[in-house]
Design goal:
Layout lengths: L7 E6 L2 E6 L1 H4 L10 H13 L8 H8 L10 E4 L3 E5 H20 L13 E4 L14 H26 L3 E4 L6 H9 L3 E7 L5 E7 L1 E4 L13 E4 L2 H8 L4 E4 L3 E7 L8 H15 L5 E5 L8 H9 L1 H4 L3 E3 L4 H9 L4 H14 L14 E6 L6 E3 L7 E3 L3 H12 L32 E6 L2 E6 L3 E6 L2 H4 L2 H16 L9 E4 L4 H9 L3 H6 L21 H9 L5 E4 L15 E4 L2 H10 L12 E2 L5 E2 L1 H4 L3 H11 L2 H8 L7 H4 L37 E9 L6 H4 L10 H8 L17 H7 L18 E4 L8 E4 H11 L3 E4 L11 H10 L1 E6 L4 H9 L3 E5 L15 E5 L8 E7 L5 E8 L4 H9 L2 H14 L1
Parallel strand pairs: 4-5, 4-9, 5-6, 9-10, 12-13, 12-15, 13-14, 20-21, 20-22, 22-23, 26-29, 29-30, 30-31
Antiparallel strand pairs: 1-2, 3-11, 7-8, 16-17, 18-19, 24-25, 26-32, 27-28, 31-34, 32-33, 33-34
Helix pairs in contact: 2-3, 4-7, 4-31, 8-9, 15-19, 15-21, 25-26, 26-28, 28-29, 30-31
The chain binds iron/sulfur cluster.
């Protein structure tokens, strides 16, 4: 390694001497005094990996040290995280790919053992538990049982991976949610590691903990000063295999916090406010850094809540510095005194330590918020950035309802025969019609469902479950409600999904678990549940009631994602809210209510109860945190974090370096990416004679492209599974079948809510297939059409609007696109991770020129497309020619979004995994 600026120093701590690359030493060459915290972390990363320019050169260090806050990002640097965290939905396909690479590297002349994570890679199984059972004491046990039955093959495979790969650990199911486990246990904040030196010896080094995670909310760890963000599985695999990740030196937006949260508000209200402000500013591709005297009043848990939602505000990360509060949290969560001493000593030695009143850094732009101005809020009904003041909720619901009931048949709560005499069902004149209602019989009582009925109330998601203030706040509200004899309405599916075992313990210690249970909030599982779409089926009577009048019902969840179709296919409106508000809406049973003015329920004697009667004070919550949340809870629950329970330990799993694939498995399959691969590198060719597979509007999410939720019985994936003897009840979710490309490719673009404009915008994953013979176009499921095009030898393209690929990082959104035969996606703009994943899978991302899109160019998807001028990746632009059936043409220029030389290189190889494989195989051959 090089050390052009002579920055290697020794740090004495805990009686040891550790080598580190000193930023103050570099400060003798450059003025680093105004550099943001996050840029200093990037700089240290470069200093430690300087290798004469192969990956990091002197010029890269100079570029970051002389960072120009206002410059548009155009300088590429390498970043090598200290570790990787994975969750099981995205982690299983990573391990499948690693297993497939072991086979492939052997075929190319290498050795299977060359394929191992080179940095600590920790996978937390948290995304598979589903809320099948709720509202009863055995819900946790039964959901766990069903989870293991459904996922046995995947779990057996992961247990094989745990044994076969070095540097790879698995946190078993029923432990917690990945980001919360990361915060509470896995994060080191400062790493102490034995590192190989050039002379073959090794030395003990100290450096900042940095992390890539295969989940977009990896940013939660930014709350404790760890720089990291979500990447696609493809980038994570590369990082695990020791490949640097290329990035452009980002802009950094400073977010100044002052004041203190007022009485009656929560960290959830704060994060929804921050999200709305940052979305408005526009921070896509940027780092956000929080600073200001408000930090002193912001517990670590609140910081983590804010950091968690970086994907919702669109930033790469949302980071807080290391300070005394970070150390308090490390102590609270049971980290060793030696680790805490290392964090403090290193942060102080490096100028990464934050003291109140410290001089402010220079930022690319700044925003500020007085915490005292935050008001109780929700966000929805379908985007996390659409904050709604609690006092405006009823109006918001009704405004949004209007658009959702246009053309709905009026039933008005009576049987159709009741009004046949009058002409039967007529299209409803929306707001003029009487409100429909469905009578249902549930829990031995009659009830009525309406538009706005809350059918799911879920305390869920690491965003909030990591935060004792909102969890204990929910418990206290439940206690106050239970004392008055209130309950959740019978049609509400109530669930409590604690983010870790610690949460249940402090709720129990505070005596609040019973109160939550009285309201119907029994623990349903330790995992993502509703936030990822694992909300499970609604009771049959509720489903029927919704269908009977095509009701627009709602969910209220303490999660961070509420895209259409995400939470539950039968629920069109989804509001994000703090856990206490989730409990309140469960009691009210409707979002068609103003909780600031109307009573949410009445007691048995008819006394109205208002939200303000139930809401606990900040002091009450603070006192309870002090009394119940202590290091012993963390120590107890994390002592054997990788061990797992009996169910986990009884899973049989194969042995051996290479995985023995089971051809009959519908969960785990050797993917076809490396079939027929040789050592020869390809080139980036122009695309001719392509057909349009989809013409989409704005904000197509990765969930639209590759849904994680239910597999429909009559979908291509559903038909495939049934043909292999899998009954619909055992379909499980797409997310759980990401280890099987046969299922996943059939699910690509199969979201029931995706609208293909080629079909006039109707919902469902269909398209028009144009046969080579010129027959009339045929409406087919996208997978079926893609396979016909494949048989015809016709490449495919996708056209889309703004923010294509927004939402959770999801490598299958790129893998499935590739396997369908899509060669290029032309969009107005791309979400950062999805663009990079497309590149990683050999699908070309192209961008319309500003002001242009498929509509302004008059494209309807019937055209034949050619894309020329790619010049083997050397050109920044390409020419698209769309030929219509009548022979006329539309010609336009697009930007080629291969952003770095390394990306061009990956693309030539056919993708990042092919690139890595050839490097490793060549090393072996040499
Ligand atoms: S709870 Fe939600 S945000 Fe957290 S990891 Fe799970 S899906 Fe992601």
């Amino acid at each position: 390694m090089n050390d052009s600026f002579s920055t290697r120093r020794q740090l004495s701590v805990n009686g040891k001497s550790l080598t580190y690359y000193s930023l103050p030493a570099l400060g003798e060459h450059f003025d680093l005094s105004k550099l943001p915290y996050s840029m200093k972390i990037l700089l240290e990363n470069l200093l430690r990996h300087e290798d004469g320019g192969m990956t990091v050169g002197r010029e890269h260090i100079e570029a970051v040290a002389q960072w120009d806050a206002t410059k548009d990002p155009d300088t590429e640097i390498a970043f090598m995280p200290a570790r990787v965290v994975l969750q099981d939905f995205t982690g299983v396909p990573c391990v499948v790919d690693l297993a497939a690479m072991r086979d492939a590297v052997t075929r190319l002349g290498g050795n299977a053992r060359q394929i191992n994570p080179l940095i600590p890679s920790e996978l937390v199984i948290d995304h598979s538990v589903q809320v099948d059972v709720f509202g009863r004491p055995d819900a946790l046990d039964l959901n766990g049982k069903i989870e293991f039955e459904r996922n046995m093959e995947r779990y057996s495979f992961l247990r094989w991976g745990q044994k076969a790969f070095e540097n790879f650990k698995v946190v078993p199911p029923n432990t917690g949610i990945v980001h919360q486990v990361n915060l509470e246990n896995l994060a080191r904040v400062v790493v102490e590691r034995e590192v190989k030196t050039d002379d073959g010896a090794s030395e003990l080094q100290a450096f900042p903990d940095t992390v890539f995670g295969t989940d977009s909310h990896t940013t939660m760890i930014n709350g404790i000063g760890v720089l990291g963000w979500g990447v696609g599985g493809i980038e994570a695999e590369a990082a695990m295999l020791g490949q640097p990740s290329s990035m452009l030196i980002p802009q950094v937006v400073g977010f100044k916090l002052t004041g203190k949260l007022p009485e009656g508000t929560t960290a959830t209200d704060l994060v929804l406010t921050v999200t709305q402000m940052l979305r408005k500013l526009g921070v896509v591709g940027k780092f956000v850094e929080f600073y200001g005297e408000g930090l002193q009043h912001l517990p670590l848990a609140d910081r983590a809540t804010i950091a968690n939602m970086a994907p919702e505000y669109g930033a790469t990360c949302g980071i807080f510095p290391i300070d005394a509060e970070a150390l308090n949290y490390l102590r609270l969560s049971g980290r060793s005194e030696a680790q805490i001493a290392l964090v403090e000593a290193y942060a102080k030695a490096q100028g990464l330590w934050h003291e109140p009143g410290a001089p402010e850094a220079t930022y690319s732009a700044t925003l500020s918020l007085d915490l005292g101005d935050v008001k109780p809020s929700l966000a929805g009904p379908k985007r996390p950035q659409d904050r709604v003041l609690l006092e405006d909720m009823q109006v918001n619901f009704n405004d949004n309802l209007t658009g959702l009931i246009v053309g709905r048949k009026a039933r008005v709560g009576c049987a159709e025969s009741d009004f046949k005499e009058e002409g039967g069902a007529q299209p409803q004149a929306s707001h003029l019609a009487a409100k429909p209602q469905s009578k249902i019989r549930i829990h031995d009582q009659d009830a009525y469902l309406h538009d706005g009925s809350v059918v799911i109330a879920a305390i869920t998601s690491c965003t909030n479950t990591s935060n004792p203030a909102v969890m204990l706040g929910a418990g206290l509200l439940a206690r106050n409600a239970a004392k008055l004899g209130l309950k959740a309405k019978p049609w509400v599916k109530t669930s409590l999904g604690p983010g870790s075992l610690v949460v249940t313990d402090y709720l129990r210690k505070a005596g609040l678990l019973d109160d939550l249970e009285q309201l119907g909030f029994y623990v349903v599982g330790y995992g993502c549940t509703t936030c990822i779409g694992n909300s499970g089926p609604l009771p049959d009577v509720v489903s029927k009631g919704i269908a009977e009048n095509d009701l627009v019902v709602a969910s209220v969840l303490s999660g961070n994602r509420n895209f259409e179709g995400r939470v539950h296919p039968e629920v069109k409106m989804n509001y994000l809210a703090s856990p206490p508000l989730v409990v309140a809406y469960a009691i009210a049973g409707t979002v068609d209510i103003d909780l600031t003015r109307d009573p949410l329920a009445t007691t048995a004697d008819g006394t109205p109860v208002y939200l303000r009667d139930l809401w606990p004070s900040n002091k009450e919550i603070g006192d309870l945190i002090a009394a119940t949340v202590g290091p012993e809870l963390f120590a107890q629950n994390y002592a054997d974090v990788f061990k797992g329970d009996n169910r986990w330990n009884q899973i049989a799993s194969p042995e051996g370096e290479s995985f023995r694939w089971d051809e009959a498995s519908t969960y785990i399959k050797n993917p076809p990416y490396f079939d027929g691969m040789t050592m020869a590198v390809g080139h980036i060719a122009d695309i001719e004679g392509a057909r349009v597979m989809g013409l989409f509007g704005d904000s197509i999410t990765t969930d639209h492209i590759s849904p994680a939720g239910n597999i429909k019985k009559d979908s291509p994936a559903g038909r495939f599974l049934q043909a292999r003897g899998v009954q619909p009840a055992d379909f499980n979710s797409y997310g759980s079948r990401r280890g099987n490309d046969d299922v996943m490719v059939r699910g690509t673009f199969a979201n029931i809510r995706i609208k293909n404009l080629m079909l006039g915008g109707e919902e469902g994953g269909n398209t028009l297939y144009y046969s080579p013979g010129g027959a009339a176009p045929e409406k087919l499921a996208i997978y079926d059409a893609a396979m016909k095009y494949k048989a015809d030898g016709v490449p495919l393209v996708v056209f889309a609007g703004k923010e294509y690929g927004t939402g959770s990082s999801r490598d299958w959104a790129a893998k499935g696109t590739n396997l369908l035969g899509v060669r290029a996606v032309v969009a107005e703009s791309f979400e950062r991770i999805h663009r990079s994943n497309l590149v990683g899978m050999g699908v070309l991302p192209l961008q319309f020129q500003a002001g242009e899109n498929a509509q302004t160019l008059g494209l309807d998807g019937s055209e034949t497309i050619s894309i020329t001028g790619l010049v083997d990746g050397a050109s920044r632009t390409a020419t698209v020619v769309a030929r219509r059936a009548d022979g006329s043409e539309k010609r336009f220029e697009v930007k080629v979004l291969l952003l770095t030389p390394k990306e061009v290189e990956y693309f030539r190889h056919g993708g990042i995994l092919h690139y890595v494989l050839r490097q490793l195989a060549a090393r072996r051959a040499a």
